[in-house]
Amino acid sequence: MQIYLDRSATTKPRPEAIALAQQVMSQQWGNPSSLHGWGQQAATRLEAARIQVASSIHAAPESIVFTSGGTEADNLAILGIVRKYQTPQHIIISSVEHSAIAKPVEILERQGWQITRLPVNCQGRVEPLDLQAAIRSNTVLVSIIYGQSEVGTLQPIDRLARIARARGIPFHTDAVQVAGCLPINVEQLGVDLLSLSGHKIYGIKGAGALYVRSGIELVPLLSGGGQELELRSGTQAVPAIAALGIAAELAAAEMSAEVPRLMALRDRLFDRLADCTCLIPTGDRLYRLPHHVSFVLSDRLAASDVTGKTIVRQLNLAGIGISAGAACHSGKLNPSPILLAMGYSEATAKRGIRLTIDRETTTADIDWTAMVLKQILSRLMPLVCC
Fold it and tell me: Does an H or E element contain 64, and which?
């Protein structure tokens, strides 16, 4: 049995997305900037995708800028604001941002920018009053992740955005994990900038989008032909963008049925593993991505060399794909900065695991995974678990 529980890393492209990408590559392969018929066919497909993505988040089509993915969308949001200023100013982010936000902000900090990283509680949630207190006279951007990919916590984006808007400060959210999983209405959220990615919603890799509210000025990262409203030069990857468009449209159409199904499977997995005393749930159980289950291995394992990666490898041998929270570079296992920000020790922050459910996950998959994981934990830690 093969069970994929790593949706937050990437999704299996849905057949409709694959078919449309193939159609574009074989029949609408022109350059959408060209004026002849071949180019205009590609341009028509591009604009159809723009309408589909915009509709999925209740935005105007002209507010959608296509990118190569979520990372580029995040970087365009951050650096597009930053490059308007000749001298360093102040930016506010959370302490649990994805690296696509955290890393460029670290670079800015070394260049003299003032950075405030808002703390989170033990469940990974930002307190809006902390944002209000952190705003300075020279704050030029607030960026808070919507759904945390490692622990599943959802942030109160509407409340946070209102605070920033009241002070006239642009507000960005990385919604890569939320898009296609929960309804998004940019007007109700009150955000100025929002990032999403095609391969996280059953599209194909190579396409993402940045929503840019009318009136928000960005300086482009790339210079060239001036595509995408002169915000993202370079010939668009029309096959991947078309796949993003149809994936966004279908996700929106299926959401009313899919969200409760995912939540039921998510809660079932939590329940099936509740008697494993060495598994400590992470993140907020109430304000949580509908497809997301995460744990750390208990502090009682202080003398154990079992880490999150150990569990990932063992489950992989059993045909089950999940993720570990900690990062491994050059053979050295580093504690998860997300778990550290939530107050976990360095040892425990190396012991995170994440199981994320997708459109093909079944009840049988959940029950089998829970049984196999319990067997693995009992074998590795017979004195303290299950």
Answer: strand 64-67
pLDDT digits (tens, 9 = 90+) for 236-293: 999 999 999 999 999 999 999 999 999 999 999 999 999 998 899 999 999 999 999 9
Question: Residue 33: pLDDT band by 50, 70, 90 thresholds?
Answer: confident
Contact (CB, 8 A) for 302 and 347: yes
Average pLDDT over the chain reads: 94
| CA distance readout (Å), 286 to 123, 124, 125, 153, 341 | 10, 12, 11, 9, 20
- Note whether 318 and 376 are within 8 A (CB): yes
Q: If one looks up domain 3-9+256-380 in CATH, what number appears?
A: 3.90.1150.10
Nearest-angstrom CA–CA distance, 295 and 298: 9
Strand partners, 139: 90
pTM of the model: 0.95
Run of H or E residues at 199:
none
> Which residues of the chain are in CATH 3.40.640.10 domains?
15-251
Q: Which residues are catalytic?
A: 328
Strands (E), 119-207: 139-143, 171-174, 193-197
Residue ranges matching CATH 3.90.1150.10 in the chain:
3-9+256-380
- Whether 123 has a pLDDT exceeding 70, the answer reads yes
Check whether domain 15-251 has CATH 3.30.110.30, yes or no: no
Amino acid at 324: A
Give the residue carrying structure tokens 């497809």: 291
Q: Are 110 and 81 in contact (CB under 8 A)?
A: no
C-alpha to C-alpha distance for 257 and 259, rounded to whole angstroms: 6
The per-residue pLDDT for 384 is 58
Per-residue buried b or exposed e for 27-66, using 16+ beta carbons within 10 Å of the residue's own CB: ebebbbeeeeeeeebbbebbebbbebbbbbbebeeebbbb
How confident is residue 326, by pLDDT bands cut at 50, 70 and 90? low
Query: How many other CB atoms are found less than 10 A from the CB of residue 188?
Result: 12
Q: What is the pLDDT of residue 299?
A: 73
Residue entry with tokens 């060209």: 34
Q: Which tokens is 329 given?
A: 């570079």
Q: Among candidates 324, 265, 315, which has minimal Cα distance to 297?
A: 324
Torsion, Cα 7 11 12 15, to 10 degrees, reads: 130
Q: What is the pLDDT of residue 325?
A: 76
